[in-house]
C-alpha cells in the first residue's frame, strides 16, 4: 500500500465549478498535511496546509481533514483555467526527520 | 512565502562529468533542506535530507557517493551529481524548511534544475 494515494486524473471540471481533489494516507500518526500545486515543468508551490480535523479555508481553497478516515481533500471554488495543474498531496512523516511524503498528484483540467 | 533559489536552472553535460547544483534560502535561515528528483509524469522522490553542519541523510536506494550533498551554511546547500550518466537526467528540486516557528514543517521549493546528460 502506498503511503499517500491520489487519483492521477485527469479531473476535468468546467470553469466556475468546484473542483474536489482527494488524498488518503496510511500512517495514522501523521500530523501535518500539505497541498502543493505544480504547473508543467515547474516546481511545486505550497497552497495550504492543515493539521486539525475539519475545514480550513483560504480564499477559493478549502482543505478538509478527517484523521479517523485518514483522508484529506482540497476544494477549489470558482475554478479558473489558470488552476489547471497537478495538485500534490504531501504528508509529514511522524518522527524527527520532518520528511514529507508526496502522492503522485492529480491532474486538474479546468475547461473554459 | 519564503523564497528559495536554485542555480543553474538547467544544465546539459557529457556523460562522466560532475554537475553541482546550488540551493539557497534567500530570506530565511534553513537548518534543513531537502533534495528531490522528479522524472517525467512522476511524483517527487525524496533523495536526501540535508542538515546544516552535519552529514546528509539519504533515502534508501540513493547512492551517497554519487550524489554528494554539502550544507555548509544556514542558507546554502549543494548537490553534486558525480560521474553523471544519461539515466541521471531528471528534474532536481530542492526545498527548505523554515527553521524558526515552524511547527508544521512547511517546505518551500526552489524553481528546480533540469539536468540533461548526453
Query: What is the strand content of chain B?
Result: over 45%
Q: How many angstroms does the end-to-end distance of chain A come to? A: 37 Å
Which two chains share the most extensive interface? Answer: A-B, 22 and 20 residues
Weakly predicted, low-confidence segments of chain A: none
Q: Which percent range describes the beta-strand content of chain A?
A: over 45%
Instruction: Give the tally of β-strands of chain B.
Output: 11
Number of continuous helical runs of chain B: 0
Average pLDDT, all residues of chain A: 92
Oligomer: heterodimer
**Can you write the helix and strand succession of chain A as a string?**
EEEEEEEEEEE
- End-to-end separation of chain B in angstroms reads 36 Å
Give Rg of chain B in angstroms: 14 Å
Category from helices, strands and their pairing of chain A = mainly beta
Structural class, from helix and strand content of chain B? mainly beta
Radius of gyration of chain A: 13 Å
**SS elements, strand count of chain A:** 11
Q: Give the biggest sheet of chain B.
A: 7 strands, mixed
Shape of chain B: globular
Overall pLDDT level of chain B: 91
How would you describe the shape of chain A? globular
Question: Could you estimate the helical fraction of the residues of chain B in percent?
Answer: under 10%
Overview of this structure, please?
The complex is a heterodimer of chains A (112) and B (118). Chain A is mainly β. With 118 residues, chain B is an all-beta fold. In chain B, the strands form two sheets. In chain B, strands 2, 4, 5, 6, 9, 10 and 11 form a seven-stranded mixed beta sheet that branches. In chain B, strands 1-3-8-7 form a four-stranded antiparallel beta sheet, with no helix packed on it. Chain B starts with a strand and ends with a strand. At the A-B interface, strand 5 and strand 10 of A face strand 10 of B.
List strands and helices in order, with pairings.
The complex is a heterodimer of chains A (112) and B (118).
Chain A: E1 4-5, E2 11-14, E3 19-25, E4 33-38, E5 45-50, E6 54-58, E7 61-66, E8 71-76, E9 85-92, E10 100-102, E11 106-111
Parallel strand pairs in A: 2-11
Antiparallel strand pairs in A: 1-3, 3-8, 4-5, 4-9, 6-7, 7-8, 9-10, 9-11
Chain B: E1 4-7, E2 10-13, E3 19-25, E4 32-38, E5 45-51, E6 57-58, E7 67-73, E8 76-81, E9 90-97, E10 107-109, E11 113-117
